[in-house]
Design brief:
CATH topology: Purple Acid Phosphatase, chain A, domain 2
Distance between the termini: 41 Å
Number of helices: 8
Structural class: alpha/beta
Order of helices and strands: EHEHEHHHEEHHEHEEE
Strand order of the largest sheet: 3-2-1-8-9
Largest sheet: 5 strands, mixed
Number of strands: 9
Strand content: 15-25%
Helix content: 25-40%
Number of domains: 1
Shape: globular
């Protein structure tokens, strides 16, 4: 059986992602890679991350990508900005851009070498717009943040999939599938417990790769769902 690896929030850590996939996972062309979103912002090289992910398919690897709230932020900010006229050197920031810049957007703009989101090459935005909101596998459901089990159809609430901070899984509504998600960083010890015990109906996989000075955090994780292998890659990117 091919390996199926799930990788959560990367947040601009290009070299760390490369070390995890090329150095630890070393996928074959039969394996599958699933990414839970939040590829950009906070870290030093969001453009490098996107280039690497886009190139996976060119390398002949099988990969599927979810949208995270940071990708949604960027798409909205790009669309808000791209047609906004400027007057000489002055340009006012829209409300979405002002909010996005507080949560890592400045680092993303720097990685692209631009000073406003509307100058990011549109091919990157188009690629992000094609990412999925959830992926249903035989035993798991993959989503960026969570599913809204308080409504009859948890798959209809796309906003919740991107922004949820907590949820209580309903295995009847998932057909017995465990929810694997990222979005909110949790301690390495808790991730390991969820992966080994499987008693909560979910696996929170984000360890906050950008939290470099916080005990129990700061790794880019990966989980192989068939053999139940959990990997942790410490950051190797230099902060800029």
């Amino acid at each position: 059986m091919p390996n199926q690896w799930v990788i959560p929030d990367i947040h601009g850590y290009h070299l760390t992602l490369k070390a995890l996939i090329d150095g630890q996972i070393k996928p074959s062309i039969e394996d599958e890679l699933f990414f839970l979103g939040d590829y950009i912002d906070r870290g030093p090289d969001s453009k490098g991350v996107l280039d690497y992910l886009i190139n996976l398919e060119e390398r002949g690897l099988k990969a599927r990508f979810l949208m995270g709230n940071h990708e949604s932020y960027l798409i909205d900010t790009f669309n808000e900005d791209k047609d906004k006229p400027g007057h000489l050197w002055f340009r006012s920031k829209g409300p979405k851009e002002s909010e996005w810049l507080k949560f890592g957007g400045k680092e993303t703009l720097k990685s692209f070498g631009v000073n406003r989101p509307g100058k990011i090459p549109e091919r990157y935005i188009q690629w992000l717009e094609k990412t999925e909101h959830f992926i249903m596998l035989e035993k798991y459901i993959l989503v960026h943040a969570g599913l809204n089990f308080s409504i009859p159809d948890p798959y209809s609430d796309k906003h919740f999939m991107l922004w949820a901070r907590e949820f209580t899984p309903d295995l009847e509504k998932t057909g017995g599938r465990i929810v694997i998600h990222g979005h909110i960083p949790v301690e390495h010890e808790f991730i390991d417990y969820c992966a080994n015990k499987g008693e909560f109906g979910f696996l929170a996989l984000d360890n906050g790769v950008y939290l470099r000075n916080k005990t129990g955090f700061g790794n880019l994780m990966a989980y192989e769902i068939n053999k139940e292998i959990l990997l942790a890659q410490p950051p190797v990117d230099e902060e800029r």
